[in-house]
Amino acid sequence: MDLPMPPNTPPVTPGAAAEGGEPTLATSVHRRLRDDILAGRLAPGLKLKLRDLAAQYGAGASPVREALSKLAAEGLAERLEHRGFRVAGAQPEQLAGLIRSRVLAETAALRESIARGDAAWEEALVLAEHRLGRVARSLDTGRFLANPEWEACHRRFHQALLAACGAPALLGFCDRLREEAGRYRALANTRAYPDRDVAREHAALARAALAREADRACALLAEHYERTGQFVGSEMQRSVVAE
Question: Do 157 and 132 contact (CB within 8 A), yes or no?
Answer without folding.
Answer: yes
